[in-house]
Predict the structure of Large ribosomal subunit protein bL28.
Amino acid sequence: MTQRCQVTGAVPRMGRNVSHSHRRTPRRFSPNIQHKKYFVPSLGRTVRLTLSAKGIKIIDQRGIDAVVQEMRARGEKV
């Protein structure tokens, strides 16, 4: 399963841990991925989305219909 938000497109990033002695070791910054179900009135059915926490906030602000419409315009499968 890929860790990718369907709304924001957030993916894991690479970085470094820096210790007190300033040694640097590689690490991975993963987005906060959640699986959520939403009922979409325009489609008349429930959709299951893979979202980051920021993606959930965007849906709360704009509404699920507007977000699903943008996703379909991008060619994202809903």
Notes: Residues 7 and 70 are 9 Å apart (CA to CA). The beta strands are 13-18, 24-29, 33-40, 45-52. The mean pLDDT is 95.
